[in-house]
Amino acid sequence: MSFYDHIQDEDPEIFAALIGEDARQAEGLELIPSENYVSRAVKEAMASSLTNKYAEGYPGKRYYGGQEFTDAVETLAIERAKKLFGAAYANVQPLGGANANIAMYFALLQPGDTVLGMDLSHGGHLTHGHPVTYLTKVFNFIRYKMKDVETGEIDYDDMLRVAKEAKPKIILAGFSAYPRELDYAKFVAIAREVDAVAVMDIAHIAGLIAGKAAKNPFDYGFDIMTTTTHKTLRGPRGGMILTRESEEIAKKIDKAVFPGFQGGPHMHQIAAKAISFREALHPSFATYAKQIILNTKAMEGVFKAQGARMITGGSDNHLILLDAWTSFGISGGEAEKLLDCAGITLNKNAIADDTRKPMDPSGIRFGTPAMTTRGLREVESAQVAEIMVGVLTKRDDASIEHAKAEVKKLALSHPIPESFVG
Ligand SMILES: *Cc1c(COP(=O)(O)O)cnc(C)c1O
Question: pTM of the prediction?
């Protein structure tokens, strides 16, 4: 009996794609730092009959009847999220990380208001004001950058100067391609000085924070955290907004999520979020979060020994941004393709002050959350980095074939787990 009995009988084309993807995930090594593997329990909730139910509104205040079980599910998700991150309020309805950020902006801003966020080429996310997003038609996004790309230090003096001048309503921290911890106290001090709300988008490092392997921005006075639930946090695809203490802000956020931007919440997804939060509250999750960082350090060691150039010189978290152009004389796109042929999945990425074009930038970005879930530790992580170096330096068919066999062996000897709390 497979997970897909009925699909196999009724829709062979989709069945073929599903088992193809299952095999791809089982046999390759996933190094995209925003990806992970969920438990079987999370998958079961995603496949539950809660997908049939409309539950517009919030627990106890819905627009439809029949909410006995949806209220129980959403309340559990909220309570677990609050406990996990030390928040007074949680909205678990955002469908993804982008949706969470959009709702957060509209909750706090009027059209034309200013947001001071991380420069996108220095690690910020599309939803932090990239010109391709419609957000930039409504709000004014201005930037801070790293002072020194080799150490990753943010230019906090310039940030304060810009903030005093531009009077942003939001000081936004957070990133999708930055390998260091931020100085949260400085962000909050600047926000207080210019009377802005301090928001941290923890999408990439939520699991590290939940597992106490990284600092919690709430401990430094951040007002709001937005996040995804499917990256290091290892839950279903989705988003969430956490408020540290202000009921006034939390109310605005609830209104912005529904009815402001979304319709009915995806209750099957919220049940899956609740399950993943329970998993993250289990002591084994702290061990997982610590191991993610140990594994990154093991990979960093190999690239350092090679003399490869890593942006900010290395990593304190789950991801590494490597300058493939300077280190190996090939573009990020070429590096991505070569490694893909060997069964290692990662993505090309622009690096700070990139001299190459966005479609084929200089860098590659990779990380350890998914392979750590499979049980790889420091020794195997270093081995993966060695395999990468082999492919990127030799680049011939024989080396790629050899790497592919090694990757498959590593992957098959570390099957994707079904449970994290058993
Ligand atoms: C991934 C990410 C998002 C967007 O999440 P989606 O679920 O893809 O919409 C937002 N912010 C940051 C910092 C991210 O890394």
Answer: 0.97
